[in-house]
Design a protein that fits this description.
The protein is α+β, with helices and mostly antiparallel strands. The chain is built from 20 helices and 16 strands.
């Protein structure tokens, strides 16, 4: 082949002292830089649990191959069958090979003083550093280049739909095709590296320092716009990136605005969407907030108001859906997009209609509500006909007089009570249905029933939390500020009405009194809605439930009903009967500890009663 392959022999290197080549000249050219391109084959994907089975490396400088290194490695553990099929490396092949105590030190000697290159370098370097740790060797921390990261910077999606080695080998027409063997893949990676360096040379990248900087994915647009961070205050708040026409592109929050905004112009920002946004942005505005929670809420409100194209969450709160029990002679379930001030009962919100329909189906399987659409008269016309659900016994057929309003009312009341928090009977019905399906070994159907149970349980818990939180005319709470003092908030009907900070040395009660006097007047929304958005209310709830938050005052006792749904995470399992049993046990456990009413069981505070024991300091 005209190229020397260095093979690890039986000589054991007692120690390795890697003298890393220091880049005294930051402008050292790529043509004068020595690279060692390495590839590993392993028994799996975990650097700590799996082992190396093969090392292949090529040393190059100025486009010339200086040497190659290749060896199988005995992993001292069986090679999994699927790995053997993928790589072609079997237990028999590695039986007489050097172990990692021989192979790894020999490779480190081969690569000493060079820049290390790998395709998905985190994988290869991770295994090498783990091996060094096991052998008691110090990892020499060489400069590392990753052809995956370089390809993402240098190539467009049209040129390469992905950055797999096989794809890049086709793009650059490599002399060797990768085949999941270490030396072949390393040789292919050499050609890919040279192709990428040629591309980047056309963009002004000619030195190792420039190549390392390019790998960090700091785009020219990011570098050029670092000036946008000038003058940003070092305080908690919200920042808004805008384009030349004043359109808000992105809204974010931070406890330290200056550092956060500056990070968008450094290698710390790796999201492609953000790089695109920075290229368009022409200004950054900030809103300084007195507390971290105020910044979180303002961010949500600004996202809802501006709907920035580069924000993904909280832009469309109106897209949430609710499950509604209608107010009519024969109530029915309906999936709706808004809560109205009517006599109907609501459950939600759900992230999408699929989950809302799943929860509705869970109700239908326990309670024989009608499933037809449209209002029914109190007295059906003679021409009315029943649907197939009546024949199946899943509906009392009020449409044809099979059930009077008096007969139907208990079913509607049962669902209305579930929407108000008494959900356990309906969840128990779902559990019984799961048990029957499991007994019949219909596991796929049992899993579907479990998903319906989960949709209903989560929605019930969410509705109960929102309903009781929104019913509070006022909550005043405080927690220690990150830089001392106290952060104080006033929440009215689930909406942030005021926020302030009592600095160290000032009694916080004065701040509390001022905030209560100047806080926004908030009118309640139709239950279970909070006065603000659901996202805002749930953000406030999480803050109030954090350790260290103290309730200073509260307008009325705050509790959640004991019959609210137990929200249990049920994981998928090959033994579906165990899944169904776990769900049933959770429901029975909740039912056995509950009472018939809706008495208080949980006050989200660090103390059982509201407390004014907040002191200066």
């Amino acid at each position: 082949m005209g190229q020397r392959v260095e093979r690890v022999v039986s000589q054991v290197l007692p120690s390795v002292v890697w003298v890393q080549q220091m880049l005294d000249d930051a402008a050292v050219s790529l043509a004068d830089t020595t690279f060692v391109v390495v590839d590993l084959e392993t028994t799996g994907g975990s650097a700590s649990a799996d082992r190396i089975t093969e090392i292949g490396a090529v040393k190059v400088r100025g486009g010339e191959v200086l040497g190659e290194f290749a060896t199988l490695v005995n992993p001292a553990t069986p090679i999994p069958a699927f790995i053997a099929v993928l790589t072609g490396i079997t237990d028999h092949m590695v039986a007489g090979a050097p172990d990692e105590a021989e192979a790894v030190p020999a490779f480190l000697e081969f690569a000493a003083g060079a820049v290390l290159v790998a395709h998905n370098a985190r994988f290869d370097v991770g295994f090498l550093t783990a091996a060094c740790s096991r052998l008691g060797l110090t990892w020499p921390r060489p400069p590392v280049l990753d052809t995956v990261r370089l390809a993402r910077q240098a190539l467009t999606r049209d040129e390469a739909p992905n950055v797999k080695l096989a794809t890049l080998a086709r793009v650059f027409t490599t002399s060797v095709q990768p085949n999941h063997r270490a030396l072949s893949d390393a040789r292919a990676t050499v050609d890919v590296l040279h192709g990428l360096m040629e591309r980047l040379g056309n963009r002004g990248v000619h030195t190792l320092a420039e190549l390392v900087e390019w790998q960090r994915q700091v785009t020219p647009a990011q570098r050029a716009k670092r000036r946008l961070a000038d003058g940003i205050p070092d305080a908690a708040g919200v920042y808004l990136f805008s384009d030349g026409q004043g359109r808000v592109l992105y809204v974010g929050k931070s406890r330290r605005l200056r550092a956060r905004v500056r990070s968008y112009f450094t290698a710390a920002e790796t999201r492609r969407r953000m790089a695109e946004m920075i290229a368009i942005a022409s200004s950054v505005d900030t809103v300084v907030c007195s507390t971290e929670i105020e910044a979180e809420v303002r961010e949500l409100r600004l996202i809802t108001a501006h709907r920035p194209p580069y924000n993904r969450r909280s832009k469309y709160p109106e897209r949430a859906v609710w499950l509604k029990l209608t107010a009519e002679a024969f109530p029915r379930l309906s999936v709706v997009s808004a809560v109205r001030d009517d006599e109907a009962a609501y459950l939600g919100p759900f992230r999408n209609r699929r989950l809302a329909h799943a929860a509705a189906e869970a109700v239908y399987r326990t309670v024989p509500l009608r499933q037809c659409v449209g209002r029914l008269p109190a007295v059906p016309p003679p021409s009315a006909t029943a649907c197939v659900l009546a024949d199946l016994g899943r509906c009392g057929a009020p449409c044809v007089g099979g059930a009077t309003r008096h007969d139907y009312a208990p079913h509607a009341d049962r669902v209305r009570g579930a929407f108000l928090g008494h959900i356990t009977p309906i969840l128990s019905g779902c559990e019984q249905q799961m048990a029957r399906l499991v007994a019949d070994e219909r596991f796929e159907e049992a899993a579907s029933e479990r998903d319906r149970w989960r949709a209903l349980a989560v929605a019930s818990s969410r509705t109960a939390s929102l309903r009781h939180f929104a019913a509070l005319a006022e909550v005043v709470a405080a927690r220690r500020g990150e830089r001392g003092g106290w952060d104080v908030v006033v929440v009215r009907h689930g909406r942030l009405a005021g926020a302030g900070h009592a600095p160290t040395g000032v009694h916080p009660q004065a701040t509390v009194d001022v905030l209560r006097a100047t806080a926004e007047t908030v009118q309640p929304a139709p239950p279970p809605l909070p006065a603000g958005t659901v996202d805002e209310a749930e953000t406030l709830l999480r803050w109030l439930q954090r350790d260290g938050t103290r309730l200073v005052s509260i307008s009325r006792p705050w509790s959640l009903p004991v019959t609210a749904a137990p929200v249990t995470r049920v994981a998928d399992s090959p033994a579906r009967e165990q899944v169904a049993g776990a769900v049933g046990q959770a429901v029975r456990s909740a039912a056995s500890t509950s009472s018939s009413g809706s008495g208080p069981t949980h006050v989200p505070s660090s103390s059982p009663e509201p407390s004014t024991s907040i002191q200066p300091g």
